[in-house]
Design brief:
60 residues, single chain
Length: 60
Amino acid sequence: MAGSKRWTVRSGPSDHNWQAGEVPGEAGPVLLNATVATGQVLYIPRGESSGSERTDRSNS
């Protein structure tokens, strides 16, 4: 990975009935908002939902 990404991690469904894809209805509460840069690692436990977006728009 080059550059950085902004990650949002939310709790998974309360009934633990996970399926791949978009989660219908209200998203769980935000557990973490973090920016991860080149060389860093973010561990997201199984069962937590996550999303990311690039924050570094340079063409490196």
